[in-house]
Amino acid sequence: MTDRPARGLLIAAARSGSGKTTVTLAVLRALRRRGIAVAGAKCGPDYIDPAFHAAATGRPSFNLDSFAMDGALLDAVAAQAGAGAALVVAEGSMGLFDGVEAEEGRSGANADVAARFGWPVVLVLDVSGAAQSAAATALGVRAYDPRLRLAGVILNKVASPRHRRLVEAGLARVGLPVLGALPRDAGLVLPERHLGLVQAGETADLAARLDALADLAEASLDLDAILAAAAGHVPPAAPASLPAPPGRRIAVARDAAFSFVYPHLEAGWRAAGADLHAFSPLADEAPPPGCDACWLPGGYPELHAGRLAGASAFLGGLRDFARTRPVHGECGGYMVLGETLEDADGTTHAMAGLLPVATSYARRRLHLGYRLATLLADGPLGPAGGRLVGHEFHYAGEVTGVPDAAVALARVTDAEGRALGLAGHRRGLVSGSFFHLIGVR
């Protein structure tokens, strides 16, 4: 623990697939092994990477999102991320400047987070297929946004010592320090599936993998220089407007099929006085009877559809619970609340039948982006007319018709205000949609 405010760094890249997660985990694990109180954070909506950060550091990792969070909430979550830490290492998403069209500081881009908290940027530069020309990319990143300070560059996918010398020559020409270089090595890549990495809890030998990355960081990165580059601040803890808890005692499904819950959401529920009680549908557990609300998060139910369909105690208990108490499902949870779920092989499995929707993962199409939702009726997410902000990220879709206003959960737009129509369903005390809640507007 430390009484001094945490400093910060942002590990970012010019585009997706550059190796940000590998570098971030290597740095986090190596600094923790040195005895430094380091915490991870993730820019933008992402459930999977923060769990790896937490495994690497032994501390919670929070999401920081300049579009979905207003300034007060962003500061409050950053304060949670830095609580008890000397250093916060945030991992970017997509490219450093990638976001939506919005006012400066509210675009959802990684750059907004670094600028708000004064965190220097360490740029991960994928140099495969380039040599001196890679410096032009780094130079463009440095020049693009005057709010930021580029602390240096980490080279990734270096093919040979000669390749590294050529890349470093270009970077020396533009005055950018190289903070390390990683080889082109497929063994460094963590296993993936359709929504990103395989979850931390499912990754075989995760501790050994993280330690191997830390060994690589010690051998290949200038950790002293990276640590010295940290600057800026984490704001002090302060109250912020968070979504209200759906109950005082909330049953939260939590296992390999239901794992996508934002840490700041649960922290906000607890701060409001709610108690959270985890249960496992995959272990055929029903929602605990002493709870007054049930939350089915997103996750990977499409990978476990047969097992869930056979979980009679879970499904029966969920139906009994829903007769008298509110139940809400996000994304994967929404799919399980529906009538049927078609898996990737085209097999249709009966689900809880609490909402009049059928979903399919066999007919895959990517749905991705921020969403602004206006609730059509009172429910677990808030009162009718309440405005929420969140996102969608899924390949499954609904094979039943679009709901009408009498049964839909919300009217939805994208981040730039374009109408996307009605979304989700509600029936009695049960509601759900593919929308993942982040904050309120």
UniProtKB/TrEMBL annotation:
Function of the protein: Catalyzes the ATP-dependent amidation of the two carboxylate groups at positions a and c of hydrogenobyrinate, using either L-glutamine or ammonia as the nitrogen source.
Species, as recorded: Methylobacterium crusticola
Similarity comment: Belongs to the CobB/CbiA family. Belongs to the CobB/CobQ family. CobQ subfamily.
Descriptive protein name: Hydrogenobyrinate a,c-diamide synthase
Coiled coil location: none
Domain CobB/CobQ-like glutamine amidotransferase, chain residue ranges per copy: 249-438
Residues of the CobQ/CobB/MinD/ParA nucleotide binding domain: 10-194
Annotated active site: 331
Taxonomic placement: Bacteria, Pseudomonadati, Pseudomonadota, Alphaproteobacteria, Hyphomicrobiales
Record-linked HAMAP family: CobB_CbiA
Xref: InterPro entries: CbiA/CobB_synth, Class_I_gatase-like, CobQ/CobB/MinD/ParA_Nub-bd_dom, GATase_3, P-loop_NTPase
Positions bearing the site annotation: Increases nucleophilicity of active site Cys: 436
Gene that encodes it: cobB_2
